[in-house]
Specification:
By secondary structure, the chain is of the alpha/beta class. About 35% of the residues lie in helices and about 25% in strands. The strands form 3 sheets. A 6-stranded mixed sheet has the order 8-9-10-3-11-12, sandwiched between helices. A 4-stranded antiparallel sheet has the order 2-1-4-5, with helices on one face. A two-stranded antiparallel ribbon has the order 6-7. The two termini are about 35 Å apart. The protein binds adenosine-5'-diphosphate (ADP) and magnesium ion (MG). It comes from Streptomyces wedmorensis.
Length: about 250
């Protein structure tokens, strides 16, 4: 087996006295889609933020692509990453939030090309060309010159996905990407994510879309109150769960 893309072992996180993650064990293999489900407040977003260096882990081990999050290993010594090193690692991880967070004063194509141009990894004209391709890939080839305010929520979210892909990440994190959308706009966003999964992207997806998790997920992880209650094949966990807490949650969201 190759190194997993994400490996969490006993990951802990607290905010003051509040223990939010109480020892999370979770592995995401390369090319797999891991769907994270659980009630509000169970720690799903915090866990994603830990993977993406937005929160510091307080205990346990968390590695992305074999590298400990927040640390650089030299021999058998661990050194805390400097800000610049964190920024470099984060370039390999794309994240899409519930709210699209596009730059309102930039067109779709400008939003998508912003990061590659800023880090100077490509020329502006190459970045523009790649951004056009990415917009086509998310079904918005004809919306490149629209501003976010001229796009529907679902279109904005697809631009946000294209923007996250522009840095050619090896891992994509989605935090309830369809929760803020009108129901009729959800399908297009899920279709883009489904295609991304089919293309082999490694993804961790926090979602309440049980159908998506069942069809697209390689694993489903049910979290509650900072622990993994149950994890495994979505066709089992989300259809015939072993744990009463999973059952109770599913009966509410279905
Ligand atoms: P979920 O995404 O599953 O709804 P979160 O990870 O957002 O859960 O939050 C888990 C718990 O941690 C909640 O009780 C939330 O209020 C708390 N929390 C999250 N971020 C912070 C923070 N920066 N400071 C204090 N408490 C936080
Ligand atoms: Mg959340």
């Amino acid at each position: 087996m190759s190194t997993p893309m994400v490996r969490a072992e006993g990951v802990r996180k607290h905010f003051g006295k509040l223990e939010v993650l109480k020892g999370i064990d979770l592995t995401v293999e390369r090319g797999q889609v891991c769907c994270l489900l659980g009630p509000s407040g169970s720690g799903k977003s915090t866990f994603l933020r830990c993977i993406n260096h937005l929160e510091k882990v307080d205990g346990g081990r968390l590695a992305v692509d074999g590298q400990l999050v927040g640390y650089r290993q030299q021999g058998d010594k661990l050194h805390e990453l400097r800000e610049r090193e964190v920024a470099e690692r984060r370039r390999d991880i794309g994240m899409v939030f519930q709210r699209f967070n596009l730059f309102p004063h930039m067109t779709a194509v400008e939003n998508v090309m912003e990061a590659p141009v800023k880090v100077g990894s490509v020329s502006k004209s190459d970045a523009r060309e790649q951004a056009q391709d990415l917009l086509a890939r998310v079904g918005l080839g004809d919306r490149a010159h629209h501003y976010p305010a001229q796009l529907s929520g679902g279109q904005q979210q697809r631009v946000a996905i294209a923007r996250a892909l522009a840095m050619r990440p090896k891992l994509m994190l989605f935090d309830e990407p369809t929760s803020a959308l009108d129901p009729e706009l959800v399908g297009d966003v899920l279709d883009v994510m489904r295609q991304l999964a089919a293309d082999g992207m490694t993804m961790v997806v926090v979602t309440h879309e049980i159908g998506f998790a069942r069809e697209v997920g390689d694993t489903a992880v049910f979290m509650d109150e900072g622990v993994v209650v149950e994890a495994g094949d979505p066709r089992r966990v989300l259809v015939d769960p072993e744990q009463e807490r999973t059952r109770a949650f599913l009966s509410k969201v279905l």
